[in-house]
Design goal:
Strand content: 25-35%
CATH class: Alpha Beta
Shape: globular
Distance between the termini: 34 Å
Radius of gyration: 13 Å
Mean pLDDT: 92
Helix content: 25-40%
Structural class: alpha/beta
Oligomer: single chain
Length: about 120
Amino acid sequence: MQLSIQAEEDDLVHVQITGKITQEHIGVAGDPLLDLLGAGVYDRNVLLNMSKADFVDSSGVSWLLILHKHFKDGAGQMILHSVPQLIMNVFKVLNMHLVFQIAATEQGAVRMVRENAA
């Protein structure tokens, strides 16, 4: 799995996830998102573009849940968008689509951030 910053605005960070979201690709130590964005990441609004993610397993879902909790504890938001159907099917089987904030498109994710801030 690779994480890369697509764009940064005042209150938004657009991050692309590419590849397999598994323990092997996440790593055993540390937090790849924290490593990419640094301290204070969980106080920001982060849009995770999953269009280039091609697989997620239980450890990948667990990592996303941990991120979700960190954002809830912080003042920020994590919104997933452009989720491939295969990964969305995994989320639905596990009822994660009821936990995560998920938008169909990047524009929809930006709208969600704006609506939640109002």
